[in-house]
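Tokens as discussed.
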């Protein structure tokens, strides 16, 4: 009995230490065919003892490798130990057509080659794309812009499922020279396509090509996980599926400055306007009193750094005190609008009339594709003398009635008298009153003098006696 027990233990131990079998490597995909600009999974499964770690670099020739996840499994069945490993690679094809998934080396072991069909599509317009749970749509307007003009680049993410751990790449210029700027926050709204409801996230950018020729914007990648609930947890415990979507690339054919443009500064805009503002009435200025003139240049489709300095409009005998220009940019989903304000204080030092010259800014209308000019017409301002100064009142010419001679002499001719001020108005009865008052005063004075003399004479006589 003891001998039989020992034999059974030895047999069992021998089974446990039986060498594992040689490695077997298989390759498959989660679906075949796949669509261009959509992610899929390449799964490598190996059973047995591998000779080395895998080298997945050959995949990068035809695919974009997005992520790699490795898992292992060990089991004992009927005294035999079995092991398996799995590599799940999320990838996206670079081109459409029939593509071979190359053999991958695991040390001395190699995986088999697998053929994969990649179908092309036009994002946002093909029926197959609309049937997807998630897809991207990229567009640009216009596709044939002028150099340094604004192009609106719009990216839309459509989804009909809940997602988690989502990321959306930023656009990148891969050919040519251009300035790219985000112009608004994400916009979120709902839409229906072929009876299917989609949640849309929209982003807008302004692109300013800096040289003529071709400018290319790279495709945009989206990566996220599709979940079965809004909380990102599957109620049945199934793991979320990672997906990647890619938009199509955008190519711009940038046009040079038209030969018919004659301005000193190239200004391609959807609209451009030049206006003026005054702090007071320029027709009632006075010497020494300041007034402020503000010139405002606004443009839709240009950034403020593109707006030029306005021409000099100073005039002699008017003192100018300019301020520093003010530059502002306003962003919306329609693009960028810019404002340049130039302000100057004017202090006249001589009265008179002055002509401020016309200011003209040539620009190119990108909507009508023609030359236009923004104009502030010439302005006449009038300056009056300073308040309280000798104004030099105009002479007043008055015709006076003939003067009668006092001693019945020959009559004088009519005389034209020039006055510098209006003569005072007097009462015609005043000369007669003054005459009688004077006569009465003289008579009283004579009577008083005679009385005093008479009294003095009598006093002297008594003293003598």
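Sequence:
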């Amino acid at each position: 009995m003891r001998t039989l027990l020992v034999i059974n233990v030895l047999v069992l131990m021998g089974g446990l230490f039986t060498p594992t079998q040689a490695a077997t490597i298989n390759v498959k995909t989660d679906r075949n065919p796949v669509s261009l600009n959509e992610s899929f999974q390449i799964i490598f499964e190996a059973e047995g003892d591998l000779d080395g770690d895998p080298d997945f670099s050959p995949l990068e020739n035809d695919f974009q490798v997005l992520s790699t996840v490795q898992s292992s499994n060990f089991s004992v069945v009927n005294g035999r130990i079995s092991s398996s490993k799995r590599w799940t690679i999320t990838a996206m094809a670079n081109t459409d057509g029939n593509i071979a998934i190359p053999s991958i080396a695991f040390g001395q072991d190699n995986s088999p080659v697998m053929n994969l069909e990649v179908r092309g599509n036009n994002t946002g317009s093909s029926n197959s794309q609309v049937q997807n749970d998630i897809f991207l749509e990229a567009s640009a307007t216009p596709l044939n812009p002028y150099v340094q003009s604004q192009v609106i680049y719009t990216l839309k993410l459509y989804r009909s499922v809940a997602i988690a751990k989502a990321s959306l790449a930023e656009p990148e210029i891969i050919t040519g020279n251009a300035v790219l700027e985000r112009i608004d926050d994400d916009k979120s709204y709902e839409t229906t396509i072929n009876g299917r409801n989609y949640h849309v996230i929209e982003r807008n950018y302004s692109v300013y090509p800096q040289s003529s020729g071709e400018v290319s914007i790279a495709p945009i990648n989206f990566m996220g996980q599709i979940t079965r609930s809004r909380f990102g947890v599957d109620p049945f415990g199934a793991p979320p599926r990672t997906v990647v979507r890619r938009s199509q690339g955008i190519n711009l054919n940038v046009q040079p400055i038209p030969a018919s443009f004659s301005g000193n500064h190239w200004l391609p805009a959807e609209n451009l306007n030049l206006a003026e503002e005054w702090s007071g009435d320029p027709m009632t200025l006075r010497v020494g009193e300041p007034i402020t003139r503000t010139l405002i240049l606004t443009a839709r489709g240009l950034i403020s750094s593109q707006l030029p300095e306005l021409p000099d409009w100073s005039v002699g005998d008017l003192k100018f005190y300019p301020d520093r220009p003010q530059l502002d940019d306003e962003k919306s989903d329609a693009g960028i609008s810019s404002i340049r304000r130039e302000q100057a204080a004017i202090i006249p030092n001589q009265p008179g009339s002055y002509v401020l010259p016309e200011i003209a800014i040539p620009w190119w209308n990108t909507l009508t594709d023609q030359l236009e000019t923004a104009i502030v017409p010439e302005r006449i301002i009038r300056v009056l003398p300073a308040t309280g100064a000798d104004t030099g009142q105009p002479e007043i010419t008055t015709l006076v009635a003939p003067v009668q001679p006092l001693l019945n002499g020959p009559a004088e001719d009519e005389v034209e008298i020039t006055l510098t001020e209006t003569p005072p108005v007097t009462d015609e009865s005043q000369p007669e009153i003054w005459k009688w008052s004077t006569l009465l005063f003289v008579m009283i004075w004579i009577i008083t003098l005679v009385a005093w003399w008479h009294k003095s004479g009598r006093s002297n006589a008594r003293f003598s006696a």
